[in-house]
Every structure is written in C-alpha cells, then in structure tokens.
C-alpha cells in the first residue's frame, strides 16, 4: 500500500513538521509520496525530493493553492489521494484545517493527532486533554490521519532523491479568498521544534515582563511560549499558546514560569523530557509534573537565573 | 439570516477523566456534564449577531442522548431561539455528526453555521470541516473574529504562525477558537424563558443518515505517569542540576 503525505511548506522551503509526518508514514510502512500543493512551490518540491525515505514527490503548482485554502486543496488531495491506502498530514493548523475536509469528501473517518502506529490500521491518540490514550482501529479503505509531530522523531531532510512529478488539475472552489496574514516575526526557534522552551503564565503580570523570558531564551537558544491566561490577557500573541487547544511541545527542557499547571496546559507540554517549574505557590499543580521545582518569586528567580547562565 | 449552532454535551472541563480499570472505556459515571466550552462561544457569537440585527433566528442543534436537551436549554437560555435534538444513544463519530448536521442544514437553509473548533472529550477538531465539505461550503476555522459583510463573512483565524484573515461567500461554516468572545452567563429569567422555547426532536433514521462508527476503540489507558521530581532550594542548585544531572543546558 502506498502512503500520501501532505507537505507543510511556505512554497520556498519544507517545514520541519513534514519530516515528523514522513517518520509516521515510515512506521506504517509502504511507498511514500509527498504532495506539495502551492503556488511557485518548485523550491519546496525540490527540498521534498531530498527527504529520506520519500520515493515520489507530486507537485501541484497553481494560484488556487497559493494560500493553502482548504476549500481548494482538499479537492486536490481527495482526487490525488483516492488511490492511496493512507493520507497523512501534520497536525498543524494547516493540516487540521484541510484534512477533515478530505476525509469527508472520501467518506472516511479521520484519525486525529496520532501519537503511535500500532499497525497499518491501528493507532494511538490522546483524548480528554491527554488524560486518556485511546487505541483505535479504522475499518475504512483509506485512512486519513493527522500526526502529532512531537511523537515521531524527524527523518533526515537530506539523503533522498525522489522523482518529482506534476499532478492534478486546478481546483478552485471559488467560495473563499485569502485577505491577509499577521505573522509573528521572531529570530528564536519555532516553538514546536525548539530544544528548549520557556513559557510564561499569568504570573508574569504583563507583556513587558516577558522581556525577561526573551532574554533568557536568547541565552539558551530557546523558544518562548505562554499559557492561555497570558494570551487571553493580551501579554503575548495567540501563536505562543501551549496546551490542549494551543501548540503541543515536547522539548528537552521546558521551563514554566508563573504557570499553575491546569490540565489543559499540561496537555501541551507534559511529554517534555525535563520540566522545570518556577512558581511562588508551593502547592501549584505544575510541581506534580516538574522534575525540578523552584518555589520562588519569579521576579527574583528569573533575573538570578539569567545572571547564573 | 438564520444561524445554526452546534452544541455538544461533554464532560465538564474541570473533570480529570480516567479510563475504567478494564480499559474498555472512559469512566463517566457521575461526572459533571456541560456544554463544550467552544460550543458556548459559538452560541454567544450567534446571539451577538442577532443582537446586532445581522441574524434573525438562532437555532441550536445537539446530537446525543435525550439528556443532551440540557445543553440545548443552556443555549436557549443564552439567547438561541429554538432547539433541535438529534436523539441517539449510539457513539456518534465526527463524520456521522457532520452528516446529521448536513441533513439539518439542508432542511433549515441557514446562512451561517457556527461550531466549536474541537470538543474537549474527543479532541478531534473535525466536525465543522467535514460539514463544510459535505455541504460544499467554505469554512473559517479557529476563528478569533467574525464579521458579516453583505453576502460574505470575514473570518480572522488563529493559525500556527499568527493570524490569518479569509473572506467566505455565504452560506459558510465557522468554527470558534477561545478568543472569539467571552460567553455571558445565563440569567435566571432567561433560564426560565428557555424552558418555554421550542425544542424539536429528530432521529438519525428520520434524517436518513447512517451513523455506524468507522473507528473502533480497542482500548483506553492512562498516559505514562510523570513522577514529580524534587524541589530545589535556589537558582544555583537549579542551574547545577540542569547542567550536571539533567545535562540539558
Ligand atoms: C476549553 C479550554 C481550553 C483551554 N486550553 C488551554 C491551553 O491550550 N493552554 C493553556 O495554558 N490553558 C488552557 N486553558 C486554560 C486553563 O484551564 C488555565 O486557565 C490556564 O492554563 C491558566 O494559566 P496560568 O497558569 O498562566 O494562570 P493561573 O492559573 O492564574 O496561574 C498563575 C500562576 O502564577 C503563579 N505566580 C503568580 N505570581 C507569581 C510570582 N511573582 N512568582 C512566581 N509565581 C507566581 C501563581 O502561583 C499561579 O500558580 C483552557 C481552558 C479551557 C476551558
Ligand atoms: C472509548 C470511547 C468511548 C466513547 N463513547 C462514546 C459514546 O458512547 N457516545 C458518544 O457520544 N461519544 C463517545 N465517545 C466520544 C466520541 O467518539 C467523540 O466525541 C466523537 O468522535 C466526536 O468527536 P469530537 O466531539 O471530538 O468532534 P469535534 O470534531 O472535535 O467537534 C467539533 C464541534 O462539532 C460539533 N459537534 C460535534 N459533535 C456534536 C454533537 N454530538 N452534537 C452537536 N454538535 C457536535 C460541536 O460544535 C463541536 O464543538 C467515545 C470516545 C471514546 C474514546
């Protein structure tokens, strides 16, 4: 059986999440084709051809796919994907937006955010904010799956030499259009791919105080995240939210500063290798998952930490 | 215009759910149930559209057992005009939920359908997108801002990199993110009034939808437990541990 992987890309390059998704495809086993749908996406397609373990790259280069509008891309994937046994995408906001549409067009279920491949038709996925792991088996002919990228180690971005083929007619549903984007610009590593993540919560009190965390992050080469409370209060933008309904991270080191440790937050970070919590309340639930807990006022501890590094 | 809102009955978000010891299912005995938080946001958005004079009628739909009426009544107390319960005791997976909602959309012809982006039990994040595909409608998922402008709706979406704005032709499907609005509390008089609002009951059979599950849950289990570690006395000890013991910096 062959597997189709939807590439996450920005037309110029392939995003890391694609490499984790190819890893999940390898765990399923079979020929792996990567679909690059975009506009002026030749460079991304060439990069995809080098990914380890990929046997074919399918490119759909068309204005209709330029902004990855789900209405258009889902029609393409449903057409190209109907001959495959599995269709995979990373569980990014792009994958989550598009893949359920594909599943519905193919009249099959989607298996969301798998964290493990048990066999070609059986997968594990977290439910109830990660408090329960379900093992589910699909009876559909085509398995449409989103992949929790932190659960699969990325394959090498280099080393392959897949053939590149153009595919698919242009599908333009004509019902939606892209107006604009406000993307956070940062020189720090991407939250979901960083080795170290430092997150701030409501305890930070305001957006300005986050500069303490940015300074620390820059020393450590870390990314900066936040709790929902910090985002809702307007301290930092939404793309920094870690949790059940934000981003899922699993870095080597996660430092939670002024975060209480609600289950919805833990759902997004408890698979981190080492967890540090800095909180002035010794009973804060975050300490129940922390490898190293420091009961302290963050406004003293963080500057001290900055100096000590 | 008519607005249709999907509301799901789920375990209250404060409850820490555990698998049953035999691993066949999750233990939902005697746990508090509530309207899915994202669905509450969907209801609030629809009611605000009505208050602005954009929407003329707000219909709340739930799919589930008879007791899911409670969540429809909550939606009615928040300001929805009438309710529809698609009654079923079966496990309704997202594709089936989307097909049932599509059947209701065909009957009611709403201009806008608002759903939660995900239900906090299944965490699937699928139903709205599937409904949009089945009905051939455009979608604005993970919305943090919604504005109806004539025959179109503008939706600002929370995406991984930040925010994206799209314009959709009506009718359209929108799914809510957390920051779209802050739902109001239902007042006592409104809770009383809600009891008198119309609530129709339909069945999947009447809607001609096959709800047979496509995914079989083989087992459920708790995740690997994390052991609480140690408390360090001060920053110096923390740094020493991170360098020498954990070796992560
Ligand atoms: C449907 C739903 C989805 C959700 N999704 C998410 C999600 O994805 N991510 C998420 O994070 N949350 C999510 N939440 C919210 C979650 O339930 C919590 O409300 C939130 O995580 C709390 O954020 P916090 O820990 O920053 O704030 P609080 O719970 O208010 O904790 C602040 C902490 O800071 C400490 N503190 C204060 N001052 C200091 C100081 N000077 N020094 C040291 N410590 C200090 C306090 O002791 C306290 O423990 C969701 C909730 C719902 C209902
Ligand atoms: C072991 C196990 C046993 C289960 N048993 C049952 C069971 O017996 N009965 C059962 O109902 N579920 C059961 N479930 C849960 C069920 O499988 C999921 O809830 C279902 O797949 C729907 O996913 P979701 O709600 O996460 O969808 P999502 O796609 O995350 O939902 C998004 C939005 O769609 C709308 N929506 C979704 N479903 C409904 C609905 N029913 N009514 C109105 N609006 C809706 C809401 O607006 C919601 O916010 C079980 C799950 C497991 C793991």
How would you summarize what this structure contains?
The complex is a heterodimer of chains A (309) and B (249). Chain A is of the alpha/beta class and 309 residues long. In chain A, 25% of the residues lie in helices and 28% in strands.
Explain this structure:
- The complex is a heterodimer of chains A (309) and B (249).
- Chain A is built from eight helices and 16 strands.
- Chain A has helices at residues 16-28, 42-49, 70-81, 93-105, 210-220, 228-232, 263-266, 298-308, and strands at 3-6, 32-38, 56-61, 86-90, 110-114, 116-119, 122-127, 132-138, 143-147, 163-166, 176-183, 196-200, 223-226, 253-257, 274-279, 292-295.
- A seven-stranded parallel beta sheet of chain A has the order 5-9-4-1-2-3-10, with helices on both faces.
- In chain A, helix 7 links the parallel strand 14 (253-257) and strand 15 (274-279).
- The longest helix of chain A has 13 residues, at 16-28.
- The termini of chain A are far apart.
- Chain B has helices at 37-51, 69-78, 94-108, 127-135, 188-194, 235-245, and strands at 2-6, 9-11, 33-35, 57-64, 82-87, 112-116, 139-149, 152-159, 162-169, 172-176, 199-202, 215-221, 230-232.
- In chain B, helix 2 (69-78) packs across helix 5 (188-194) and helix 3 packs across helix 4.
- The model of chain B has no long low-confidence stretch (mean pLDDT 96).
- Chain B has a nine-stranded mixed beta sheet with strand order 9-8-7-10-6-1-4-5-11, with helices on both faces. A two-stranded antiparallel sheet of chain B has the order 2-3.
- Chain B has a single domain (2-245), classed as Rossmann fold (3-Layer(aba) Sandwich).
- The interface between A and B is large, with 89 and 80 residues.
- The site of one flavin-adenine dinucleotide has 31 residues of chain B, from helix 1, strand 4, helix 3, strand 6 and helix 4.
- Chain B: Keywords: Electron transport, Transport.
